[in-house]
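Standup notes
- DV: blocked on the single-chain target, sequence here:
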Amino acid sequence: VCNIGIDTCITPFDNTPWAAKQGDNLIVASVLLAYRGNAEEVIIPEGVTTIGRNVFWERDGIKTVVIPNTMAEIPEQCFAAMDSLTKMDIPNGIHSIGDEAFAWCNSLESVVISSAVTSIEPNAFKDCPKLTIHAPAGSFVEQYAKEHNIPFEAE
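- DV (later): unblocked, structure below
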């Protein structure tokens, strides 16, 4: 169970020999359930297809996260309230970005989004004051940025 406002995620697998072998990422059936590391750059392994809700909520110290091509969406509140997050590249495998996925990321300056993204929830980038979105000119992403008054730069 992950609770908002705590630094750790408690799962039924904690304190088991199996979990100890998992390292920083707790992955079950291709779902990232918990991240327990403290690296500035987090690399989500290829093969992960989704991320559990609030896995990265309020995780300070993480500046970048590398998302694998095996994911199709960025779930709701996935990276919300990460004060140290500065940059994110969203790969071609991603087609949608969930509600408040990056909300309240005060240091987020740059998000590069591929033209494969065709759905972004209205509050996906809520209260990201430094954000500039980078994407192909004429894409859905450009339209989204303009409609939500987010600075945009064509890639």
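- Follow-up: The first helix runs from residue 17 to 20.
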